[in-house]
């Protein structure tokens, strides 16, 4: 286990915001995990887990505690049953699966981050999410100080949610994830943006490799590469509605999308309707192609990000009556333990 002191959180996250963390520990083996938590407990330090830093935002005050960097590596493919160590790059696994003809995660191509974060927020895109292929996860339980296996039924998956970012947030350190994939391909109809791409470019290959190409092209066109432009990917979650809420929204003329994953209003629509698309707010640029994404052009501080977020969310609430929920987790300087990605 490697240990560092006084590390800028901005250097560990793709939004590139955040003060210093007092301690940063790189977890390279299972034995490092209880040792790291014992160290934190001895000094009453809060702990936060970071993988690739693509869904985590630091605050200006930093963290008087411990950040654990998940660097567990390894991968095994047993005829489509993938057991992947949590520190592996997510998109590398997707690329491998598509090359081998396995379906189930091809629509999740080019999502930044590491494997351990995938089940935490039940990552999803273009009609697929992790819950559809998740079998189990091996983890360290900080409440019982033991290594355990969590099955799919234990995870309570929902839209961008699991027990790991809700009721049991911060309790588990994910060691590995097991997915069950099969040979085959996605079936039509696809998401509207995918169907439009097919129509525009005459795409006919819907194999996992072909769909990866389509999804990669769509993401490259709309979403900035966090290595080039500081961002956390989708900053706001879409608004999901129950049947009664959906009817009321439609009566008001709001564009409710009814799909296999539930009824929703794309939050990008609210942002566009309020005139924020492409705008620079306190140094944060609302992405002109995908308004759910905020790009840190010159914000510099969490305080400026908070001002931009407040302007967007309060304006939308005043006009439409919906509060947009933030997707990235924040490192908060308290004794409460946080989440990962």
Descriptive account of the structure:
The structure is a single chain. By secondary structure, the chain is of the alpha+beta class. The strands form 7 sheets. Strands 6-7-13-11-12 form a 5-stranded antiparallel β-sheet. A 4-stranded mixed β-sheet has the order 1-2-5-3, with helices on one face. The chain has helices at residues 32-42, 90-99, 152-155, 192-201, 208-222, 243-251, 267-273, 302-320; strands at 2-8, 20-27, 47-50, 56-57, 63-70, 75-78, 81-85, 102-103, 124-125, 128-129, 134-141, 146-151, 172-180, 182-183, 231-234, 239-241, 257-259, 262-265, 280-281, 284-286, 293-296, 329-330. The chain folds into 3 domains: 2-71, Uridine Diphospho-n-acetylenolpyruvylglucosamine Reductase, domain 2; 75-183, Uridine Diphospho-n-acetylenolpyruvylglucosamine Reductase, domain 3 (2-Layer Sandwich), CATH 3.30.465; 236-325, UDP-N-acetylenolpyruvoylglucosamine reductase, C-terminal domain (Uridine Diphospho-n-acetylenolpyruvylglucosamine Reductase, domain 1, Alpha-Beta Complex). It is built from 8 helices and 22 strands. Mean pLDDT is 93; it is low at 336-341. The chain is globular.
Descriptive labels:
single chain; 341 residues; alpha+beta; Uridine Diphospho-n-acetylenolpyruvylglucosamine Reductase, domain 2; Uridine Diphospho-n-acetylenolpyruvylglucosamine Reductase, domain 3; Uridine Diphospho-n-acetylenolpyruvylglucosamine Reductase, domain 1; 5-stranded antiparallel sheet; 8 helices
């Amino acid at each position: 286990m490697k240990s560092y002191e006084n590390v800028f959180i901005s250097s560990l996250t793709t939004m590139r915001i955040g003060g210093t963390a007092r301690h940063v520990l790189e977890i390279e083996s299972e034995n490092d995990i209880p040792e790291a938590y014992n160290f934190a407990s001895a000094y009453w330090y809060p702990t936060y887990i970071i993988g690739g830093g693509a869904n985590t935002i630091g605050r200006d005050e930093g963290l008087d505690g411990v950040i654990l960097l998940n660097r567990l590596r390894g991968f095994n493919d047993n005829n489509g049953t993938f057991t992947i160590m949590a520190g592996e790059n997510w998109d590398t696994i997707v690329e491998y699966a598509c090359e081998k003809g396995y379906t189930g995660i091809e629509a999740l191509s080019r999502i930044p981050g590491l494997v351990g974060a995938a089940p935490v927020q039940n990552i999803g895109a273009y009609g697929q999410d992790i819950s559809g292929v998740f079998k189990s996860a091996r983890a360290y339980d900080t409440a019982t100080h033991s290594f355990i296996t969590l099955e799919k039924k234990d995870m309570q998956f929902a839209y961008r949610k699991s027990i790991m970012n809700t009721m049991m947030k911060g309790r588990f350190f994910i060691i590995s994830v097991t997915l069950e994939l099969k040979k085959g391909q996605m079936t039509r109809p696809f998401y509207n943006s995918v169907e439009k791409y097919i129509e525009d470019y005459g795409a006919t290959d819907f194999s996992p490799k072909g769909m990866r190409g389509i999804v990669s092209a769509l993401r490259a066109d709309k979403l900035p590469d966090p290595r080039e432009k500081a961002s956390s990917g989708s900053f706001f979650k879409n608004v999901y509605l129950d049947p009664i809420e959906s009817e009321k929204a439609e009566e008001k003329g709001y564009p409710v999308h009814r799909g296999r994953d539930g009824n929703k209003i794309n939050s990008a629509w609210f942002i566009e309707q309020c005139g924020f698309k492409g705008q620079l707010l306190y140094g944060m640029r609302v992405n002109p192609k995908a308004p759910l994404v905020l790009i840190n052009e010159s914000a510099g501080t969490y305080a400026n990000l908070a001002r931009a977020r407040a302007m967007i969310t309060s304006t939308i609430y005043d006009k439409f009556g919906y509060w947009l929920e933030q997707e990235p987790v924040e490192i908060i300087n308290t004794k409460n333990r946080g989440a990962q990605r």
